[in-house]
Amino acid sequence: MIASAKAIPADRPNGKLIVATASLAGCFGCHMSLLDLDERLVDLMELVSFDRMPLTDIKHIGLCDLGLIEGGVANAENLAVLRDFRRHCRVLVAVGTCAVTGGVPAMRNNLPLEACLKEAFVHGPGLVDRGIPDDPELPLLLRQVHPIHEVVRVDYFLPGCPPSADAIWSLLGAVLDGRPVALPPEQLRYD
Amino acid sequence: MSSDSGLAVQHGTDQGGLGQGTEGAAAQVGDQVRNAPKPQDPAWAPGAVRIERVLGASLAVLGAGPETVLQHLIALQHAFSYVPEEAVARLVAALGVTRAQILAAVDFYAFLHQTPRGRFDIRFSDNITDRMLGSEALLAQLCAALGVRPGEPREDGAVCVDCTSCTGMCDQGPAALVNGYALTRLDAERIRRIAALVETGTPLAHWPRELFVVSNNVEQPGLLLSDLEPREAGLHALLRRGADAVLATLAESGLRGRGGAGFTTADKWRFCRDAPGREKVVVCNADEGEPGTFKDRVLLASYADLVLEGMTIAAGVIGASQGFLYLRGEYRHLLEHLDAVLTRRRAWGLLGGGIGAWPGSALGARGGFDFDIRIHLGAGAYICGEESALIESLEGKRGIPRKRPPFPVTAGYLDRPTLVNNVETFVAAARIAEHGGGWFRGQGTERSPGSKILSISGDCTWPGVYEVPFGTSVAEVLERCGGADTQAVQVSGAAGVTLLPTEFERKLAFEDLPTAGSFMVLDRRRDLLEMVRSFAAFFAHESCGFCTPCRVGGRLVLDLVEKVAAGAGGTHDLDELRDIALVMRRASHCGLGQTAANHVLDTLDKFPRIYRERLRGADYAPSFDLDAALAEARALRKRKDAAAHLALEG
Amino acid sequence: MTDAHSTPSTDSASAERSAFTLDGRCIPFAPGETIMDAALAAGVYIPHLCHKPGYAPHGSCRVCVVRADGRELSACTAPALAGLKVESETEDIHALRLAVLQMLFVEGNHVCPACEASGACALQAVAYHCGMLTPRFPQRFPQRALDASHPDFILDHNRCILCELCVRASRDHDRKRVFAVSGRGIASRLIVDAPSGRLGDTSFSSEDEAAQVCPVGAILLRRRAFRVPIGKRRYDLAPISRTGDVATQLQAELEAETLDT
Predict the structure, then answer these.
(1) Which helix (H) or strand (E) segment is B183 a member of?
(2) I need a labelling partner for A25 at 20 to 30 A (CA). Which of B455, B541, B568, C78 fits?
């Protein structure tokens, strides 16, 4: 059962809905799961065209019907991307456990940032050039990693690490048809 | 003076008062303090000899049953300002309870600590009425004067300043407790004096008495509190007429429990009388923790005999020989007085063996009856006002409400049939036994016979205790106490109902506005959202943590209220607030959780403005402060430029 | 659904003395049974976490909330009463139950992808049963310890849901009193009975009943991780509504199968 059923009208001029995706503090596993749709991708391409997503290499999102967010919010850039998605997408979906709960990256939440960075860049095994990176281009880390609904309103949630291609298909089918999402039990997983 | 003699639980002895006990404890702790750098320093710890002396005295009075553990812990806390590790080991050996059980209890009760609080442990009462009288500024003043932060013991072990839930002095606040004893009518001048007394290490017994004056402001006595002669007439009625007749009278009166739930008292007594089990127990619930209520304090201070008479009548009717008066820790200042009254009643044959064993007594033929009362101190836990949590606490455990059935009347204290009534209920029962059911029914309404004793505080000219007939309207009460320009009245405490001025014609009665007696008046100057925040913080602090909706929901409610109050909320937060409040009301285990969000639901419905005027533009607002969440990273990277900050909206 | 209750015959009168309805279905019960006891015995699942057959009813998790006689009760503590009309799988009760589950999820640190108990975790399985897609509330991300002091067990407080099954098992079944719940409110926490506060310094052992009862991944037996692979675990094989203490043949078979693997 889904909390809200926000319909996308299927009356686009070219008949296709515009979809954007992004991975925030995630591992791209959810995107891989999207690719696991395999031949169903062909069907999907009949229905949608992609705006910003890792495959299109479009940097700035335009107005979209559907935004799929993988990963939690861990830094200032994640925040900016997420808020940009919310502004541009009629329907926003949290895809995968990290977007839904914070997931594995949120396991750093009980450690001070300095300790995390030192473990990763100073004390960790196998490091050559030890030291915390300090390039101004690198986004500032948030104190904690948060699920995306703690920052913006989210219309649908699809848990799973990653959600299976079937689950993603169920979600897309429902959202594109403007139906409430009903995942069959075997597609509802948190791990 | 024997140094540890007056500590805590020597009920029924000649000790325990403000003077001797505390002075002894303070002086001893103080002696240890002067050369000690840190409270945790082993040099600080009381030696085995002193622990043994305190514990030995406590064990001698109360015995070594596992159910006595809480009282021993209170004695230790009072003597040393914490429960020393060595004492825990000693209790494990003596009582057969586990260390984990002891630590669980210490951690549960707000007045017990595993680390020293210091020579003077000062806690400001933090009810909304205290805040309305300026308690926040006084807390800040005292902290500044003593160089401490709230809740953090000073390094030299001299003092800890903190807050606590309502101490029941709302008619004479701002109030506080020092080493458990009530301070009233605090103002800037008194705070200066208190700071000086702390800095000079003046023993509590030498503090000026006027700081500790507690007034028993009975502004309006009614049916129960008038014409009090002759004394003990209710008890004599029992002895003359017998238990059945008195129970019939009680039934005729229609008396309902004064703690708020309103269960028919005669039924409760009958159930307990008829329950199988020879050892029955009468408990007086004087754990008056509902914010804004203090009438039980006044009843215990000014009408203690009437309360104890009511308990004795109940014992005679149901056949109980054991009685407890569960006195909230905040009312420790009443301990000496109550012990004296108990001693006197024993001397007069009104307690102890063979009560009423004289010719002409209906009970005389059977040699009268045996009944005695022991005072059990609470230690800072509102939930212990719930009768089954109170029983758990009497048994020395954390105050977790039991599941029902079984009800306490069949299986209560140590699984014995147990009658738990409110202080005021016992007073009413004693007067009804004396005057009859018809007399009682002469006031009140059909479904709410008799009178109700109210604790009135807040924005009114004459705060204090008022006894009014049930059926009296809120407007009439406001008229009597001098409430003007009233914005809202909070009836029956934080767990009660928030009333709009358009509702002031409603009547105090079980069928309209049931009340345990708290009546807090807020005039139009007040920020009602501050009241909501205060109550939400209270319930989050006082949730026992047993069930999920109250444990987690209570905290979520507080977070959301604070978010809205800080101007960081959206309309979505108000929807969530309502939804969580309803989950708490419907799914919680006990009355605390079920009523803990009443104030939220009431104010969302009746005073939506207080929330809406603080919302930021967006309907959906982040759950945390986005820019502040980057502060740690900014500091690490030494970034101070504008690009290292987030735009607020977006 | 029609049953004996709908007709006021003598038969129905006698049936009413020993049955209630649960979502319209007739559930017989024996004197002294709770709504939960009777429902499980009849093979009808009511979601629950702190309840375990054979243990004293507890009523703390509130996941088994049902509606009867116009008010909400915990099915595991409420006595079964003849003629009672109990609602469990209604939209209204479902929403309540879901909110309680969501509270449990945000209260602790439940990272299913990184949890050894995933697939054999009752919290997760009940959430699946209730179709929970999001924890909804702000995550509390509490700071909690992991106790690895015991040679045979890990005690991970991040996942504890305070059901007190281990407390009850150790106290009532093992006669050891290894566990207790300390503190109050949101600061409530599981503690163990040792001066060091560490599980390794208690008498806790893998022979204990308390070693078997944790419904989540808080008390984990060492050297068992992934012995049963993900996808083959208890609730992977069948949903908790068919295996969660419900009296069915299936459950017995599954138990045997899971232990063998």
Answers:
(1) strand B181-183
(2) B568
